[in-house]
Specification:
Length: 290
Amino acid sequence: MARIKLIVTGDMEKQALPQSLKRFFPSQRNGQNVIWETPHKVDGVTCSRLDPSKSPSERMKRLVKAMLAEATIGSQGTPADLVLVLDDVELHNLGQESIVTDHFKKAIEMHLSNLPNNQLKIREIIRNKCSFHLLKPMIESYLFGDLEALSMAGVPASTQPLLVHATDMEQFESNDPQWLPNCYAENEEKKKINQPWWRHECHAKQYLIYLRSRHSEFPYQETMHGKKSLTMLNWKKIQKTPTDNPIIHSLFQDIADWFGVQNPLGEGKIDPIFYPSSDVNPATLLLRNM
C-alpha cells in the first residue's frame, strides 16, 4: 500500500483537496493500492509579507518539521510515500513566489544542519518523497475556472464572473464594476497599515463571497460550500490553454511523475520555480520539485 500525505494550511483543503485530486490519478502505483490520507493541517506561512533578507519564520520552520515528520515517521507510525506541502500565495506575497520557496528551502537547511548524524539519509528521503507547492493566489481562484464547481459554492450559473484574465486563474483579478469600489476602499485601508501591495480585486475568496451574497442570505462557509465545490472541481476545465496556470500544472506534473503517468491536464507550461526542467540533474535537487 502506498500513501500520499498532503500538508495544508486551510480547513477547506484538509476536508476536500485529497478527494479533489485523486479523481484524476490512478488508484494504484506499481501494483500497490494508493491511499490519500487525511491531510495534516498547520498554520499558513504566507499570511504576512516575506522579506528576502530575513530568516524563515517560526511558522515556516514548523511547516518543515511537519513535512519531515510525515516523510520519516508518519501520523500513524508509517511514513508517507509522497508528501505534498501546499499553501496559498495570498495577496501578501503575490509575485513573491520565489521568495516564499527560498524561505522554505532555508528552513529545511537550518533544520538539517542540526542533524549531523543522519543528514545525508534525510536529504535522500525528502529528495525522493517531498514537494512544496503554492496555490496562486489562493485555492478559491481555481473554482472560477469551472463554473459548475463555482455554482456549488453558491454562485448561480447565470452569474458570469467578471475577470481581467478570463482563462488564467493564477492571474486572478476582477474588473467587476459593482465590486471594484469596495476593492479600492479596502486597498486604501491597507495602505494606512503599511501594506501598499494589497490589491483586493485579486482576492478570489472575497470576490466569491461577494457574488454569493448577491444571491443568498446565508454566508459562505469554507467547510460546507467550499468543500463541496473543491471536491467536485474539474481541474481539466481550469487548464484552458497550454500557457494557463503553470503553478497548478506543475503540481499535477509532480504527482503524475510519481505515479508514472501522463499529466492529466495534458500539455502545458511548467513553472520552473515549482518543477525542474528535464535538463536538471535530480541529484542536485533539495526536494522532488525544487
